[in-house]
Amino acid sequence: MKTANKSIPGGVTAPRGFRVAAGSAGLKRDPSLPDLALLVSEAPAAAAAVFTRNRVQAAPLLVCREHLAGGRRVRAVVVNAGNANACTGGQGLADARETAAAVAQGLGVAAEEVLVASTGVIGVPLPMAKLRAGLAGLPAKLEQSVGADEAAARAIMTTDTFPKFGAVEVELNGVPVRVGGMAKGSGMIHPDLATMLAFLTTDADLPPAALDAAFREVVDRTFNAVTVDGDTSTNDFAVLLANGQAKNPPVTPGSPAYAAFVAALEEVAGKLARDIARDGEGATKLLTIEVVHAPSDGAARTIAKTVATSCLVKTAMFGEDPNWGRILAAAGRAPADFDPAKADVYLAGRLVARGGVAQPFDEAGLKAELGRREIAVRLDLNQGDGAATVWSCDLSYDYVRINGRYRT
After folding, report:
1. Cα–Cα–Cα angle for 126, 188, 223, nearest 5°?
2. According to the model, what pLDDT value does residue 1 have?
3. Residue 182 zone, left/alpha/beta (φ > 0; ψ -120 to 50; rest)
4. Cα(327)–Cα(140) distance, rounded to whole angstroms?
5. Higher pLDDT, 170 or 400
6. Out of 99, 159, 195, 201, which one is annotated catalytic?
7. Which end of the chain is less congested by CB atoms within 10 angstroms, N or C?
8. pLDDT mean across residues, the chain
C-alpha cells in the first residue's frame, strides 16, 4: 500500500464534497476587509473537535459543544472575524444560536448541523444586523477551488499577515483520499488541548471513534506544540470533518491505512501550526525548540514549552544574540526533573554548551546564523528516551505595538 503523502493545491475544499465561501459583514476595523467564511459539506460529515480549556469560554464554543453532543453529524461551519462574541452573556449565546440558524436556513439544513466560530475583540456584542446581511449572501458564493480556499483563509484572519491553508493526498487501501485545512492565529497562542482556530476536512471514511482518536493524537503533536506568547484564548477551537466521499474501504485503528491517514492529517496540521508560529504577532523568526533524551516525553514537552515561552530567550533570538545561557536557565525552571550537568545545548546547529558548561564557538558566525528566518534550538538532556518539539517565534518591538492598541 502506498503511504507517501503528496502535497496538492488548495485547502479545505481539496477533499471531495466540500465547498467554501468568503464574504464581509463589516466587523473588522477596516470594514472593507472580508470577515466571514462558510464551509459546507455536501454530505453529513462526522466531526472530531477539541476546545480551549480556558475557563472563560466564548459563546460560539458553548453552542458548538451543544451541537456536537451525541455524535451529531455536521453540514457546515461558519466563522466570523473581528468580534470574538466572548464575555457577552446570555445575549452572546442567543446571537451564536441565531447565527447557526441563519446559516442553516440558507442551506436547508438543521441548525444543530451548523458549527459556529468567532475571533476578534472580547467583550463586545455582535452587531447582528450587519452579520445577518453578510451571512445572507454566502450560500450563493460557495465553490470548490484553490481561490475560494485562499479567500476563506484570508477572511478569518485578524492580526495574521498571511492566509494559512494546505492539503495533501494519500492512498488508503488503494483509494486516494485527501486532507485539507485552514487556520488563523498570530497572537494569544498557547496550547491547552486546542489553540487558535483550525478547520480540517477529509473525504476519508473513518468510524467516528477512530476519527476522534486520530485527531486528538495529531492535535497533541501539532496545534498543542505551538506557542507565540503563552496566552490561551477564550475562543480556541479545532475541528476535523470527514464526509466519506472518497468511498475508501473501512479504516480501523492499528491498521496500516489508519497510520497512513494519521500521517497525512499530521502533515497538514503541522504545516498550519508552523505557519501560526511563523506569523506570530510582530515575529521575525520561526523558532523550533527540540528537547531530546529527556526522562520522558512529558518532561521533554514541559521543558520545550518553558524555553519556547521564555521572554528572555525570545528577545535574544530577535536581537540575534547567541545568549545560550538563557535557554538552559529557562529549562531549569521548568517543572520537570533533569540533571543540568548532563545537558548539551545546540543553537542554530552549533554546540554551545556541553554538560551544562560553555564550549568554544565562533560568536560572529553564530550571530550571522541567528539572522536567518528560521532558528533551531536543541537541548539534549542525555537522560532518557523522551523527546518533544515545540514551535515558537521571537519577541519583537512590534508585538508590543500590535497588542498595546489591539482594541483601540
Report:
1. 105
2. 39
3. beta
4. 52
5. 170
6. 195
7. C
8. 93
